[in-house]
Design brief:
It is globular and about 30 Å long. It has one domain (2-20, 37-114). 9% of the residues lie in helices and 54% in strands. The chain has 122 residues and is mostly beta strands.
Length: 122
Amino acid sequence: MFNFFRTLFYSKETKEVNVIFPQKSNIFNCNSEVEYDGTLFFNGTVNGNLTCKYLKIGSSSLVTGNVNADWVFVLGEVKGDIIANRVAIAPSAKIHGKISYNSISIEPGATILGNYFKRKSS
């Protein structure tokens, strides 16, 4: 199942931050909220809320804020709540907050300091 999630974030439609924000190199550092209507993959820090369709948080990343996306793939650290339909958490991930999901995959070795619960169907 982990490989299934991994393939979703390496599609032709995936945009790395250096493509979306050309003035930035491979590392994305931001002190504001980020909203993007597409797929976002980054390494770096975000101090603010992140909202996008598909999100991959790289292994050297730190997000201090809430994450709201359709699909979330976490390799790095999140200090905030995650709200997503599908969540994949890698062994290197550290999450400090609540996770609200419809479908979740947690690999052995991942650290979750908080709660995770299935969202109610509407």
